[in-house]
Design a protein that fits this description.
Number of strands: 13
Distance between the termini: 46 Å
Helix content: 10-25%
CATH superfamily of the largest domain: Ribosomal Protein L25, Chain P
Largest sheet: 6 strands, mixed, barrel
Strand content: 35-45%
Order of helices and strands: EHEEHEEEEEEEEEE
Number of domains: 2
CATH topology of the largest domain: Ribosomal Protein L25, Chain P
CATH architecture of the largest domain: Beta Barrel
Length: 178
């Protein structure tokens, strides 16, 4: 379980001090809940996210255990250092928007024809309840040749998921290398 602290002060100086001490600033929110300003040790947060198996995970904030999902994060444009993360409380039974990561399996046959595999949409936004939330969307790319794409309309999503992206949006494709 990830340990965090609740921030008392919201001033710019307090935020800078926390960042200097190695903390990652976080905002935790949910439907019908009051926002919580929190901070996590940056290295522990990154290690925890790399090793988690499910999309939703538990966070301990001064004795309160909350189940959250990473909704958005900000990185420094120069150093790619993680600056801020938005965590949404995953409430059971409430239909909410989630962003599900896309994973590919297999080797596309277009790679042998000097093509490059491009993941156009890294996270697909869907609406569902926490109970029906998949950990990822796995796509088999072995039949993709250069110029081929897998679009949103080609995905076989369960009936419990609603994808609200345009059906013509590409998820994965093989492009010609120059």
């Amino acid at each position: 379980m990830l340990e965090g602290i609740i921030r008392d002060s919201m001033t710019k100086q307090a935020t800078k001090t926390l960042r200097r001490e190695g903390y990652l600033i976080a905002n935790i929110y949910g439907k019908g809940l009051e926002n919580i300003s929190a901070a996590f040790k940056k290295n522990e947060f990154i290690k925890f996210l790399r090793n988690k198996e499910t999309l939703a995970f538990d966070v301990n904030l001064s004795g309160n255990i909350v189940k959250v999902v990473v909704q958005e994060y900000q990185k420094c444009p120069l150093t790619s250092e993680l600056l801020h993360v938005d965590l949404m409380v995953a409430q059971p039974g409430v239909k909410t928007s989630y962003k599900i990561p896309v994973k590919t399996t297999g080797i596309a046959k277009g790679l042998k024809n000097k093509g490059l595999l491009m993941i156009h949409t890294k996270r697909v936004p869907v609406k569902c309840t926490l109970e029906n939330l998949p950990n990822n969307i796995t796509l088999d790319v072995t039949n993709l040749d250069t110029g081929d794409n897998i679009l949103i309309r080609d995905l076989t999503l369960p009936e419990t998921l609603e994808c609200f992206l345009d059906p013509r949006v590409p998820v994965v494709g093989v492009i010609k290398a120059k």
